[in-house]
């Protein structure tokens, strides 16, 4: 009880100092809880949607998958007669055929895409009784003919659509227009998909190209019949060539793609939260180390009156527990706010998430509080242990916590060993022959060098701070020299404070190097390898009508088609490979200048010929002149002669196997030929600008595709990587904010620690302005110390990562010096900002009271 009272008294006696440490715990816990609440809410949203939309039993083609687009662009389908067969099964109350396709684009009169911008699909189909499970018609009526359609209310509201408006639907079977005659509202949250409905004959004809096909059959059970029993009955009726699923099985399959997407988001965000926790550990260690140092005399008195080492230790740990509990509880509440903010952000991006589905599982706050408390207590353990070692007599003499030179030497040796091991791992990664092997060594090198720099930080602080001070502070005379001495007074504290900032900036520097190198490598590869003037592609394959519009565009010397086909290759050594092949026009050899190690690419576009990549050829012992069996999905098996081996030391089309369009047509039926994945074009000589404008005009009616010249393509690549990096930087900002709080806390506690000294300096003539400047300079040096270590470490990581990327064809290493310099200079401003409050408080000290302080 005495220990608890002492801890409580000390905790509330240092409210301001504890508050800064609590903020670090709060932010870290908030990010963890916010991530969990956000992902749980998304899961709840999709669970409700899938559970509501699924019929008791669904019958679909055996090869159909919820997240796949078939090779030919049309959904997998089954005969309409299946509905009658299913109806005859025991226990069936009703059965109806349904049509559904996600390979469509819907545009308004101005050719504006009605689809969601955030990645959610556009879904087109027929209106069925099963849709009444999840939707209700709130305006107008269901479509009754080929010129009518119905849209969902969210899409209508987003794009200001009304009854009578005309929309054009683009699919692989052609374009058709229809007027809105109805608006249907979701009964559950719509995650963002745009949904359009047609009558059944129109959906069959326009989406499937046949009026006697459905994509699935919805089956509802009679009273008293379970889903499992109904599934067995239906299976007995059919011939075994169908995929039959209960409502739960169907929902689970739909969840697979969502779980994969959500898993990436969840673990990436938790990773950044972990970085923030790691940075927060340094803040907490520094806080308690300084508090213990300031209470040395008090600890001595406690020991003198009978307190044991364990009691002193527990006293500090109880304070840490209180700090962890307060910070964690506040963090849980803030985490819910973060989750709601993320939901709003996703809604703005096109994925609608309602707060009605906000899901806070009991495990979330428990995990948040436990994690916050455990991390805080572990961080405070070393200072607590050090406090317990203070001898009563040394403490009463105000000798401070015991300095252990041997421990410092051991620490330095451990740091050097870890750093050396990490450096060796990075070297090994950079010289690896395979990216998969090198990536493991890269991960080991990053971890070891990071830990090594943290451990060796106090030793580095002495040399680096002196160099920085010589460059930045010596010009400020005695004030600058005092700032330097203050930063060097406690190297362990300076090292820990700088290390907190080092972690975030090391990751920033690493990602900047990797991102810049990727852009530079891709740009170099484009300049070297791409001969096409224009590239056309989109999120969906290019429908035939858009292909024709491109081919008819004036001013083009040639247009190249590029199709990806599913196929199984059997090499001469008898091994099979399901990676497929690429069919293209012979002009593709001009549009993409692939280097060949044997044969010529032009020959690969000959009759019954093909090319393979050098990695495939090496792995299977394939040479020019060998024959490979290629079994085309939905087609025949061809024996194709290898006419070229392309060099896989490239980032573009690495590993592609080329055949000609004519060879493809010989072995693949017309209804199984896929639309183009991408298309290329070359302008007539001297007609580049005119051809570019004409091509854009020709494809104006198809907004789902982008027309780019090489300049556009490079810029978009740069923008995409830039957006990704900006998002990552935003997440890393959390760690940097925590690091800044650490600098503030260190300076604030340092000012309190030096109260008497500050009073004496003021008494002999140091002005308030000089005092504040001294503290600001000290803060700037500490911040730049952390920045220098972090940026140097990060550039080393980034350079090694680029060596691995070079194995994948991205060979250019580019250091983004403007970014690196900006971050370094920005760190100085961070130091100034962090010193504002401590410097202000130091300047307001009463001189006489400060001198009288023990």
What's this, in brief?
The chain crosses the membrane at residues 267-293, 316-342, 362-384, 409-428, 440-473, 494-514, 727-752, 779-799, 819-840. This protein is α+β, with helices and mostly antiparallel strands and 854 residues long. It folds into four domains: 1-54 and 251-402, no CATH class; 63-240, no CATH class; 457-533 and 710-854, no CATH class; 541-703, no CATH class.
Indicate the percent of residues in helices.
Answer: 55-70%
Task: Determine the mean pLDDT.
Answer: 86
Unreliable runs: 398-403
Question: Quick one: overall form?
Answer: globular
Q: Which structural class fits the helix and strand makeup?
A: alpha+beta
Question: What summary fits the major beta sheet?
Answer: 8 strands, mixed
Radius of gyration: 34 Å
Tally of individual domains: 4
Strand content: 15-25%
Distance between the termini: 28 Å
- Tally of helical segments: 26
What's the count of strands? 26
Transmembrane segments: 267-293, 316-342, 362-384, 409-428, 440-473, 494-514, 727-752, 779-799, 819-840
Membrane topology: Multi-pass membrane protein
Protein name: Membrane protein
Region (Disordered): 60-84
């Amino acid at each position: 009880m005495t220990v608890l009272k002492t801890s409580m008294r000390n905790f509330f006696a240092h409210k301001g100092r504890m508050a800064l440490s609590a903020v670090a715990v709060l932010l870290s816990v908030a990010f963890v809880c916010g991530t969990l609440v956000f992902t749980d809410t998304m899961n709840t949203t999709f669970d409700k949607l899938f559970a509501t939309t699924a019929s008791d039993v669904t019958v679909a083609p055996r090869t159909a998958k919820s997240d796949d687009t078939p090779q030919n662009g049309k959904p997998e389908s089954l005969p309409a007669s299946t509905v009658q067969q299913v109806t005859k099964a025991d226990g069936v109350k009703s059965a109806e055929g349904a049509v559904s396709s996600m390979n469509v684009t819907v545009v308004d009169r101005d050719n504006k895409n009605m689809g969601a911008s955030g990645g959610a699909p556009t879904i087109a189909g027929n209106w069925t009784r099963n849709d009444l499970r999840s939707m209700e018609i709130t305006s107008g009526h269901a479509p009754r003919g080929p010129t009518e359609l119905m849209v969902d209310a969210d899409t209508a509201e987003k794009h200001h659509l009304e009854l009578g408006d005309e929309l054009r639907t683009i699919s692989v079977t052609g374009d058709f227009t229809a007027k809105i005659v109805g608006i249907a509202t979701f009964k559950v949250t719509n995650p963002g998909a745009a949904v359009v409905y047609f009558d059944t004959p129109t959906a069959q004809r326009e989406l499937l190209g046949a009026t006697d096909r459905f994509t699935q059959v919805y089956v509802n059970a009679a009273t008293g019949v379970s889903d499992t029993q109904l599934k067995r009955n239906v299976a007995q009726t059919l011939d075994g060539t169908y995929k039959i699923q209960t409502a739960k099985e169907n929902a689970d399959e739909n969840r697979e793609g969502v779980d994969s997407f959500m898993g990436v988001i969840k673990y990436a965000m938790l990773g950044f939260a972990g970085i923030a926790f790691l940075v927060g550990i340094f803040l907490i260690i520094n806080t308690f180390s300084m508090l213990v140092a300031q209470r040395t005399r008090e600890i001595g008195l406690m020991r003198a009156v009978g307190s044991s080492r364990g009691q002193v230790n527990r006293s500090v740990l109880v304070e840490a527990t209180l700090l962890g509990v307060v910070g964690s509880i506040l963090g849980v509440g803030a985490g819910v706010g973060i989750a709601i903010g993320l939901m709003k952000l996703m809604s703005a991006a096109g994925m609608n998430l309602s707060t009605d589905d906000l899901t806070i599982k009991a495990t979330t706050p428990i995990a948040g509080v436990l994690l916050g408390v455990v991390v805080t207590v572990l961080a405070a353990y070393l200072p607590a242990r050090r406090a317990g070692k203070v001898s009563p007599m040394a403490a009463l003499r105000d000798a401070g916590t015991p300095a252990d030179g041997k421990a410092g030497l051991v620490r330095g040796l451990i740091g050097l060993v870890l750093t050396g091991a990490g450096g060796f791992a990075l070297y090994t990664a950079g010289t690896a022959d395979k990216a998969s092997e090198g990536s493991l060594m890269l991960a080991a090198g990053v971890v070891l060098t990071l830990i090594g720099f943290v451990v060796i930080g106090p030793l580095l602080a002495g040399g680096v701070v002196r160099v920085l001070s010589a460059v930045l502070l010596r010009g400020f005379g005695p004030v600058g020299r005092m700032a330097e001495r203050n930063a060097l007074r406690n190297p362990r504290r300076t090292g820990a404070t700088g290390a907190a900032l080092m972690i975030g900036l090391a990751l920033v520097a690493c990602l900047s190097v990797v991102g810049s190198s990727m852009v530079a490598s891709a740009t170099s590869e484009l300049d070297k390898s791409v001969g096409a003037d224009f590239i056309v592609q989109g999120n969906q394959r290019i429908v035939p009508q858009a292909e024709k519009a491109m081919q008819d565009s004036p001013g083009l010397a040639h247009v190249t088609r590029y199709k990806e086909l599913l196929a199984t290759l059997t090499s001469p050594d008898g091994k099979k490979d399901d990676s497929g092949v690429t069919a293209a026009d012979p002009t593709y050899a001009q549009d993409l200048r692939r280097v060949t190690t044997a044969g010529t690419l032009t020959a690969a576009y000959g009759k019954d010929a093909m090319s393979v990549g050098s990695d495939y050829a090496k792995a299977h012992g394939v040479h020019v002149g060998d024959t490979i069996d290629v079994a085309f999905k939905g087609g025949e098996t061809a024996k194709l002669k290898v006419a070229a081996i392309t060099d896989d030391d490239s980032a573009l089309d690495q590993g592609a196997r080329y055949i000609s369009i004519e060879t493809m047509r010989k072995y693949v039926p017309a209804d199984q030929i896929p639309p183009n994945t991408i298309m290329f074009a070359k302008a007539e000589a001297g007609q580049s600008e005119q051809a570019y404008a004409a091509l854009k005009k020709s494809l104006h009616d198809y907004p789902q595709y982008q027309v780019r010249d090489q300049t556009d393509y490079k810029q978009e690549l740069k923008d995409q990587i830039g957006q990704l990096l900006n998002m990552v930087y935003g997440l890393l900002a959390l760690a940097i904010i925590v690091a800044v709080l650490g600098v503030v806390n260190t300076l604030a506690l340092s000012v309190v620690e030096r109260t008497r000294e500050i009073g004496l300096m003021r008494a002999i003539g140091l002005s308030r302005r000089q005092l504040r400047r001294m503290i600001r300079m000290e803060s700037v040096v500490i911040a730049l110390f952390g920045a220098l270590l972090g940026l140097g470490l990060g550039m080393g990581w980034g350079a090694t990562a680029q060596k691995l990327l070079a194995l994948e064809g991205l060979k250019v290493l580019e250091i983004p010096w403007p970014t690196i310099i900006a971050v370094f200079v920005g760190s100085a401003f961070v130091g100034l900002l962090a010193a504002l409050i401590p410097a202000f408080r130091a300047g307001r000290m009463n001189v006489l009271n400060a001198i009288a302080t023990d």
